[in-house]
Structures
1.
Amino acid sequence: MISNSDLEVFFEATRERVDRALATWADRARQDPGGQVGEAIAYSLLGPGKRLRPALVLAAFEELGGRGDAVDLAAAVEIVHAYSLVHDDLPCMDDDDLRRGRPTTHRQFGVPVALEAGFRMVTLAARALAHGGAGLGLSTETLGTIGSTLFRAAGAAGMVGGQVLDLEAEAREVELDELRDIHRRKTGALITASAEIGAIAAGVSGEALEAVCSYGEEIGVAFQIADDVLDATASSATLGKTAGKDAAQRKATFAALLGPDSAMIEARLRVALAIDQLGAGGINSLLLNDLAYFIINRRS
């Protein structure tokens, strides 16, 4: 296990690299599409955040032998994540006013602008992905695989489909297996894709790539469990978003189904399984292991 200070150094360095890349793409959005939509995109991209998903891209890429700078691939994943938050906060979805300690995008710019900004961010992510692939000298086939991985995770089979299932599960009882399935898609798909994209860009394939994907799936569920527990137990000031929304909206959550303590036991089990998956694939990475533990030990 690496020290907490080393992990903090990694996160700080990653945030700085990714934030610089996001600032470049935000400037491009201010020019194209420009106007209020461009400003809304920039606002959404430049908000504070953990940058966990791009950290996973870069950690997988660098730990598994990648050469060059994969920061634009990491930025592409974060752009997709930021788009998902813009739409997730809308009145027709979670109807939230606060995100990362600031007004949500639709509160700042209005619902029509936020809607269009979110859709435009998907194409912006594709541009960042193409730019990153060219910078790394990836083949057309490899870049196509990475693009398919990202946008499949973001679409109906992944994040968007999971969001629909999450809405449909409100105010009704769900079993643990169903809840896991919802969040393997809603939250876990993009987290899995983050690790997978970094590994593919590094040239990983076969059993090792399968191990990375299995790792991503397990930590994706663990991330959602930790989120559910934080929503139930932490303050809005700590979270940077409205606490207690899950209970108020009668969401199906791990904290509600299992209770906070049992939910965290489940999260720790998922992390252990994730690390076991890496070992089974012949991958020995202290950084990837510790990122898995960070996911369940974070405070926001």
2.
Amino acid sequence: MARVSLIIPTFSRPHLLERCVESARRAGAGVEIIVVDDASTDETASVCRRLRDIKYLRLDSNRGVAGARNEGLRACTSEYVGFLDDDDLRLPNSIDAQVDLLDAHPEAGMVYGRALYGDEQCLPKGGSYPDGCPQGDIFWELMEWNFVPCLTVIFRRTCLERVGLIDESATGVDDWDLWVRISELYPVLATEQTVAIWRQTTAEQYSYRAERMHRRAHRLHRDKWLRLPRAMEADEERRQQTSKAFSDRAAQQMISAAAARIRARRGMDAMRLALEVMRLYPRAAVRHALRASVGSPDVYGV
């Protein structure tokens, strides 16, 4: 039996799938590859039939990435699990190295690493994320911002018995939600090594999706994460500090994105995003504007 199951959700992108599956094969010895077809309407099914040694699941209706990941989780039996989007790549032997770390630290719930930024062909184009890889008790840090690239994580399947499956209402930030819930109960390991290539989509593809993700993250932070038992047991100062840091980071990123849209001559997109940041994070947006007005450096380069 394979020790690691790698779940690959896919929807109508058969031209990318074979490359992704091949990278998963090279990433570790005896990895179970589960491809979850989210009701594709093209030749994805026939492409998957040609791929050797995969477990192929086809959904009857489109449920989004979070729903497809859950079906993969229900189908896997391995000790460890990871996710890989169909346009991203795993680096050779990267999974084996992460499994060795988890084997050496049975108290840990998951391990993550760095991802190289990739171009449209998923070739490294310079740079990686994150710059630093905090480990150990990172619950409060993850409550402030997601620095864990989903495609780099391997986690213990037994964690799901305590934290539950993917939250399907949180598509786009469902991985972040899972990392928060795991880190509440388990130490997290990290490797400074790059373990994957993260394909970067164009700004046009990302525009509306980014705003939906910010809205979902805002809802999760307010209505779910701050109500987790560990957060509820913390003092009010700690909770307020976390909320302020989360709001500042979100507002800064949204304002930075709006400025990039102005530079790209997409004024209506920029205006829409500016209105959204004022609706979600009015105080943080004002703080950011005041810092900018007095010439304080901004970590997002606006």
